[in-house]
Amino acid sequence: MSTPAGEKLIAAASALFYRHGIRAVGVDLIAETAGTTKKTLYDRFGSKDALVALYLERRTGIWREFLHEHLRGRPVEDLFDVLALWLREQDRGCAFVNAYAEIGGTGHPAEPVIRAEKEWMRAYLVDRAREEGHPESAGVALHLLYEGATVLATAGGDPDAPARAKASALAVLYPPADQQGERGQQHQHDHGLAQR
Amino acid sequence: MSTPAGEKLIAAASALFYRHGIRAVGVDLIAETAGTTKKTLYDRFGSKDALVALYLERRTGIWREFLHEHLRGRPVEDLFDVLALWLREQDRGCAFVNAYAEIGGTGHPAEPVIRAEKEWMRAYLVDRAREEGHPESAGVALHLLYEGATVLATAGGDPDAPARAKASALAVLYPPADQQGERGQQHQHDHGLAQR
DNA sequence: CTGCGAGTATACCGACCGGTGTGGTTACTT
DNA sequence: AAGTAACCACACCGGTCGGTATACTCGCAG
Question: Model confidence at B187, in pLDDT bands (50, 70, 90)?
Fold first, then answer.
């Protein structure tokens, strides 16, 4: 937690950065939106770049909390239902992908935050998948489908992308054992065919 | 084709937009890099926004040509090898995703170009998959994995993402009947086996 | 010969960029 | 009583933003 004015600045900056992009939002606008002054912004954070890094750090926390809360007690493939729910409000897609589009390869202090978020998500999905008896490759596939669904739902303009991704995920997690659609359905952790 | 000076401007703008982003590149820099003047830029294109749209339109053509050339006569799952090859030079990822991050939701003239590219790719993969005996759902899965691999290879910093995506794609396209060796298994796709 | 399209060079515009400096007002410690 | 952290109001800085204006040269087609 920061000071009250600091928190207002982070909140304003987060909303503006996410909606309009980083370079499109000036520090004057951030300060004005937050109801404070540019001076306070620089006293608290030192630079716009530092504020950008903080914006992304805060956002990882919010997403992880959302994910944990909504995926608790549900099979890992429901990730895509959670994603659809998230994207209903977060209609500008992945803040990290968007930020990388603007600052990638520049040595910006927020770059490691972006990379860490992707790595965390990969590890999380691999773990979750393994807990439910799926091989590591399944977790990796989930991660790829998750990123793909996010991109196609936003830049691609396809709101059904998460649903399509879930269908693909089910095909990977529960391979259709030749005929008998009976086998490939959801829930049930204990899948005998999960080896290694 | 445009006039000579116009082409030089498009070339300069394309390189700069892709590497540094759209908002990060000013028209002065574009004109200077192209060895022409700002006046010529506005005489030819009318606005920076129009130049941005043209940049993306040109890029769709270059990618499709690259894709057709390298995927000709190969199974559709080799898409990911082509992607890996493409990303070796295009290390800033998908220009359309990056552009959408900056201009998405603003009514920018380049927005339909972005959406069209994603739609074209989806249709292309569904068609290619179908030609090789795979269901439509397989083409959709390929599209999702393709986008996911691009994101994870760039923002995620994982250069092996396309290879991982190919492994996932193989699991979708050729459901493991006996399932074995999940790690370093490739090649041998003598896919004479066409299933519904 | 003339008109015109394409191009160059340069100056200019108001607005905004990230960032700093000065000065003053609260409110809580020590 | 003095210090200090937090904050506001406002002015200022050099530089860049997208875009425009003026004036000129060149090659070519009528």
Answer: very low
Mutate which of B96, B168, B193, B196 to test chain A, going by most A C-beta atoms within 10 A?
B168
Dist CA B98 CA B20 (whole Å): 10
Distance from C-alpha of B47 to C-alpha of B58, rounded to nearest angstrom: 17
CB contact, 8 Å: A24 with chain B? yes
Contact A150, B109 (CB under 8 A): no
Verify that B30 and B58 share a domain, yes or no: no
Q: Is the pLDDT of residue B59 over 50?
A: yes
Decide if B193 is inside a domain.
Answer: no
| Cβ distance of A165 and B144 shorter than 8 Å | yes
What nucleotide is nearest B48 when CA is compared to C1'?
D18
Domain that holds residue A13: 1-46
d(Cα B32, Cα B34) in Å, to the nearest integer? Answer: 5
Domain count, chain B: 2
Q: What is the mean pLDDT of residues A87-106?
A: 97
Summarised one tens digit per residue, pLDDT across range B89-99 is 999 999 999 99
**Residue listed under structure tokens 């986008």:** B147
| pLDDT band at residue A2 using 50, 70 and 90 as cut-offs | confident
Q: Judge contact between A194 and A179, C-beta under 8 A.
A: no
Q: Is the pLDDT of residue B188 over 70?
A: no
Q: What is the pLDDT of residue A178?
A: 54
Cα A86 to chain centroid distance, Å, stands at 9
What pLDDT score was predicted for residue B69? 98
Which chain B residues in 30-69 sit with Cβ < 7 A of strand D? 38-39, 42, 47-49
Choose the closest CB to B148 out of A96, A146, A176.
Answer: A146
Q: Are residues B37 and B91 in the same domain?
A: no
